[in-house]
Write a structure and sequence with these properties.
alpha+beta
Length: 121
Amino acid sequence: MLVVDPYNNLKYETLSYLPPLTDEQIAKQVDYIIRNGWNPCIEFDRVGSVHRTNFSGSGYYDGRYWIMWKLPMFGCTDAAAVLREIAECAKEHPDSFVRVLGFSALRQVQCAGFLVKKPSV
């Protein structure tokens, strides 16, 4: 089974090469983030991939940082709450990619991230 077109396919985030995730599959990934004590965060972006627009020198890329949807969900213990925020973000920004991240307050870094929605163009 060919999952991706190897020539005309941008790479976005972890799991982006798979068919779209169901809500149940997303909830399992979010549960993993919560079980590890990480804070879920939702971000969106119209481009969705790392690109070079403003400067073409080495080491600089536009598109590394996406727009945060609200604040990280500190203390979140329910994957259903994250799913509701994903749906709200996707409804508000139908032309954008949406991803979920897991941030560790201890390590002060992103420990998980995956794409949950591609634009409905």
